[in-house]
Structure formats: C-alpha cells, structure tokens
Amino acid sequence: MEAENQDEQLTNYPGSPFILARLLRPQDRLKLFELHPKEIDILRHNIGELKQSKQIDIYSEDSFSRLKGLLPPPSRRGLVLIDPSYEDKQDYRYLETAMEEALQRFATGCYAIWYPVSLEENPQLCRIG
Questions:
Q1: Dihedral sign of CA atoms 49, 41, 44, 102 in order
Q2: CA angle, 115 as apex, 106 and 83 as ends, to 5°?
Q3: Which in 73, 74, 90, 106 has the greatest CB count within 10 A?
C-alpha cells in the first residue's frame, strides 16, 4: 500500500485485485470476477493501467458459480482468493458451498477468504501500522 500512499498515512486502499496484481510472477495468471455493472468498467480501466494487465482476465460473472469450473488449474498449483462484497447476506452461504465444491475438485489448492472486519466491533483496528 506504500505505492498508493505518501507520508506513512493510509489514505488510499488498493483493494485485493491490485494487491494480487503486484504479486504476480511472469508465469502467473490472475482471473478477476465482478458482478456490479459500474464497478466492472472501473476495474477494467484500472487494471488496464497496470504493467501486469496482459496476465489478468476480467469477467462480468458470478465467481461463486464459475469457480468450480476453473478447478483444478492446468498447473495443479494455485491460490484462490475469494473476496465477496457481502452486500448480499446470502454470500456467506454461497461462500460455504463454493469452498466445499472447490476442496472436492482441488484439495491441494491454497484458499484465502477476504472477510470484513467491522471497526465498530473491533475499535483496536483503527490504527494501521
């Protein structure tokens, strides 16, 4: 996040797509899914500005339903980051189902789930660093 922020102050948060894009090695691929019509245009534009943009595919699809078909990856190695909006309370159930199916298809994969942390419930998290 240092690339987006100056003077050790957290003013801009890059989001999971940009964090992952920075970590890509030349042989890596990144597949991003976005359902919100306005957000996908912004995502496509911003990803297009990155030097890693040719390694990144962006889909206007539901990642929960698409994940199963992507596993296992051809390399038999991979990291799956699931970062739902959690705007729809059903996302918690969709996440559980998607993980059950993913683990059946790709049990040796690495999985990370982005989970919202409320500052109201965890005021000690207000300070970063």
A1: positive
A2: 55
A3: 106
- H or E stretch at 44: helix 37-48
- The H or E element that residue 65 is part of is helix 63-70
51's enclosing H/E stretch is none
- pLDDT tens, position by position, 52-73: 999 999 999 999 999 999 999 9
Residues 29-45 pLDDT 10s = 999 999 888 999 999 99
Amino acid occupying residue 123: P
H or E element at residue 80 = strand 79-82
Residue 128 CA from chain centroid, whole number: 21
Known catalytic membership, residue 41 = no
Which among 30, 97, 111, 18 has a CA at the least distance from the CA of 65? Answer: 97
CA–CA gap between residue 87 and residue 90 (Å, rounded): 9
Note whether 109 and 71 are within 8 A (CB).
yes
Which residues share a beta bridge with 111? 80
Q: Which of these is catalytic: 41, 83, 88, 91?
A: 83
